[in-house]
From TrEMBL:
Gene3D superfamilies: 3.30.1360.40, Ribosome-recycling factor
Name of the gene encoding the protein in the UniProt record: frr
Protein name listed in UniProt: Ribosome-recycling factor
Every Ribosome recycling factor domain range: 21-182
Entry keywords, A to Z: Cytoplasm, Protein biosynthesis
Entry keyword Transit peptide: no
Length: 184
């Protein structure tokens, strides 16, 4: 029973770390990157649809991205969704076939804002990991009468070690993203 709880905890924490890394990839650096548009939702026939399902994204140059829709009728919706995207500051242009997005040059102040944003996202991910730990600790405490106190103490130490490992993984990803953002 204890092994199942710890295995489930580790799996959920792994997913939380992966979600944090994906979240970091949506914050832009100096280069145009198709991952920036990963979470863009486009209004398509009245339904919010992920941009990746409606178009292909290609980086032409360091700061230019081309979005080629599979259905030309989605062109205006894609352009509007990119324009409304927070933290991007890009102005898309539409030539009737594709949407070109030219990313503005990042200023030092804007880079610092992005670092703050990434730190906030990292802290949210750590809070999520600690919430998973708390739930697992409650599940272990519920086993108090069924298993020995030594087994529970060992399980709690293992739970703390798993939690620390996952928080450290989030910190490492944060350091990498921070260095990437501050690189000129």
């Amino acid at each position: 029973m204890i092994a199942e709880i710890l295995a489930d905890t580790k799996t959920r924490m792994d997913r939380a770390v992966e979600a944090a890394k994906e979240d970091f990839s949506t914050v832009r650096t100096g280069r145009a990157n198709p991952q920036l548009f990963q979470k863009v939702m486009v209004e398509y026939y009245g339904t919010p649809t992920p941009l990746a399902q409606l178009a292909s994204l290609n980086a032409l140059e360091a700061r230019t991205l081309v979005i080629t829709p599979y259905d030309k009728s989605a062109l205006k919706g894609i352009e509007q969704a990119v324009r409304d995207m927070p933290n991007l500051g890009a102005n898309p242009s539409n030539d009737g076939n594709v949407v070109r997005v030219t990313m503005p040059e990042l200023t030092a102040d804007r880079r610092k804002e992005y670092v703050k944003l990434v730190k906030t996202k990292a802290e949210d991910a750590k809070v999520h990991v600690r919430g998973i730990r708390r739930k697992s600790k409650d599940e272990l405490d519920a086993l108090k009468g069924e298993v020995s106190d030594d087994d529970l103490a060992r399980a709690e130490k293992e739970l703390d070690a798993v939690t620390k490992t996952h928080v450290d993984l989030i910190d490492e990803a944060l350091k990498r993203k921070e260095a990437e953002l501050l690189e000129v």
